[in-house]
Design a protein that fits this description.
heterodimer; A: ABC transporter involved in vitamin B12 uptake, BtuC; 14 helices; B: Rossmann fold; 4-stranded antiparallel β-sheet; 8 helices
């Protein structure tokens, strides 16, 4: 009897200690509420719509998560999100081969990340400031090179559209890319040496340094990962819409941070999971979609995301303390 | 140079701008020896150990490690040589579990094709062994370090140093903010290290902690060496006077 009780408690703790649990419960509750309001919410058609729009936010948010775990921010992801497809398509329009243009565009994004990281670490300023500045700089560049008007989407880019967002049976290619990015980042964080360094860098910078971890290199590389994935996510949206919108990704940096935080990533670094951010990204897009399905005015979207972000963090913090005490 | 010393620092100088932090300091540690490094705040204790642990180079002076002249340009180089430093505030990462802390920066890898995967099973097994060596019996190597007491946290750091066969362990204020019971535990750890042939430098301003365990006590004041004292030849009262000497 006593053994059963101990075992029961052990299971209970095991489940409670799953880092993604809180966000998962919230996701299920939100889905059930929307389903209760509108039955077509869980129709195949609508699930398809959600799966089509999640990867754009999800890929960028996954990159932000890795960066946030190492204790830094990136507010410039929304601008990079707009810049990458526009630069790419303008190059294609100018006659540069599609593959080359794609590689140049993504490399350019990596360069932006490296610049963010280098400035932040070289001058020891908060990445909040560096990337706030860069958010304005790259949005400005987007407006400068487009004149504020969407450039034409070249026909020559159709193969890229197929590869990135083409339909594969019930789903779109973007979902597979998203799954791939998630799996790679999960392995990187949870099963690689580098992941250990990322958590250490965000958890206790000094301890990591004393043990010989090159924290500057870890952080710069994470800035690169965040910018690269933001650019890639921008290309996903640009090709999906078949339109290059200069205002794309406005406000997205905050959605990305919200998705990470809802999923259990700490704002101050050291704690976080990519899977949690996946749940956070789904939650944000599902609320977006569910409100439309429930014919609520679109303005409610921000209200809900804001509230859910706060509630998720409160539950994470309070439940975290409870679990420690139970042990 | 002397063949008997594990480490010998000669004529060490360090300036920060126009401020002289260390002026011609000399320090040596023998094999299996506990050396106490005492001095008031600002005496230059932490500057001296940062030089020894490779955080920054001395402006003048030489370091001999096991009889050979060395220049550490990073903490990593000092660690590789066998000098490990445990700073109380920065010994471990609270938000990570015990085994990830023990193997931080020196992770166990299982090679599969071109990829190196963390060998979590091996890390867990080896962690338990390392902890048992310092008589630390914790619930699970997967427990978060943040849930441990201050003394246990230092125990994890000491277990780590021992596991990686450190020859010289530098402990920076290890008993600060610890309860009496936990401080005693740390002192036990340090004595155990000595019995296993590991030397340590114990930095503190609490003479009552260092006096019972140290073989020799080294007194630093205003960046200058006041003297090295064999424990038998001195007393806590005498040392207190030396430290507070203007």
């Amino acid at each position: 009897m006593a053994k059963d009780k101990v075992l029961g408690k052990w299971w209970f703790l095991k489940i409670l200690s799953i880092k993604e649990l809180i966000s998962l419960v919230m996701l299920i509750v939100v889905v059930m509420v929307f389903y209760a309001i509108s039955n077509i919410f869980l129709s195949w058609d609508n699930i398809g719509v959600i799966l089509e729009i999640v990867p754009e936010l999800g890929i960028a948010a996954a990159g932000i998560t890795v960066l946030m775990i190492s204790g830094e921010f990136d507010l410039s992801v929304g601008s990079v999100f707009a810049l990458a497809p526009i630069v790419l398509m303008m190059m294609v329009d100018a006659g540069i081969p599609l593959l080359v243009a794609t590689l140049i565009s993504l490399s350019f994004c990596c360069g932006i990340g490296a610049l963010n990281g280098t400035i932040t670490l070289r001058f020891g300023i908060p990445s909040f400031i560096t990337t706030l500045g860069m958010m304005m700089v790259w949005r400005g560049v987007v407006l400068l090179i487009t004149g504020g008007w969407p450039p034409p989407f070249p026909d020559k880019a159709i193969p890229l559209k197929q590869a990135v967002v083409g339909q594969l049976g019930l789903i779109y290619a973007s979902l597979i890319w998203y799954a791939g990015v998630t799996i790679i980042l999960w392995i990187l964080l949870e099963r690689s040496r580098y992941g250990n360094w990322v958590f250490a860098t965000g958890g206790n910078r000094q301890a990591a340094r004393v043990l010989g971890i090159n924290i500057a290199r870890v952080k710069v590389l994470n800035f690169v990962i965040a910018s690269f994935l933001a650019g890639f996510a921008g290309i996903v949206q640009g090709t999906r819409l078949g339109a290059l919108v200069p205002s794309a990704g406005t406000g997205m940096e905050l959605d990305c941070i919200a998705a990470a935080v809802i999923g259990g990533t700490y704002l101050m670094g050291g704690v976080g999971t990519v899977l949690g951010t996946v749940i956070g990204s789904f939650l944000i897009r599902i609320i977006d979609n569910g409100l439309v399905m429930a014919s609520a005015p679109g303005y409610w979207f921000r209200v809900f995301i804001g509230l859910i972000t706060i509630v998720a963090v409160i539950i994470n913090v309070t439940l975290g303390k409870r679990i420690s005490k139970l042990r | 140079m002397s063949n008997t010393s594990l480490v010998k620092l000669l004529n060490i100088h360090k300036w920060f701008g126009r401020v002289c932090a260390l002026e011609g300091v000399e320090l040596d540690v023998d094999y299996s020896e506990i050396v106490g490094l005492v001095g008031d705040n600002g005496a230059g204790k932490s500057t001296l150990i940062k030089i020894l642990s490779g955080v920054y180079p001395p402006d003048k002076g030489e370091i001999y490690w096991q009889g050979e002249k060395v220049e550490f340009s990073s903490p990593q180089e000092a660690i590789t040589a066998g000098i490990e430093t445990i700073y109380q505030e920065t010994a471990v990462v609270d938000s990570m579990n015990i085994m990830r802390n023990i193997f931080m920066g020196r992770e166990k890898i299982r090679q599969i094709g071109p990829f190196g995967w963390l060998d979590l099973k091996k890390m867990a097994r080896e962690s338990i062994k390392a902890l048992e060596k310092v008589n630390l019996h914790l619930r699970s190597p997967a427990a978060m370090v943040g849930e441990l007491s201050g003394g246990q946290r230092q125990g994890v750091a000491i277990a780590r140093a021992m596991y990686f066969k450190t020859k010289l362990l530098i402990l920076d204020e290890p008993t600060n903010n610890l309860s009496v019971k936990e401080s005693k535990r740390i002192l036990e750890f340090i004595k155990d290290l000595k019995n296993q042939g590991i030397s340590s430098i114990f930095i503190t301003h609490n003479l009552h902690h260092v006096y019972p365990v140290a073989d020799r006590i080294f007194v630093l004041s205003h960046g200058k060496e006041v003297g090295v004292y064999l424990k038998e030849d001195t007393s806590i009262d005498e040392l207190t006077e030396l430290i507070t000497l203007k």
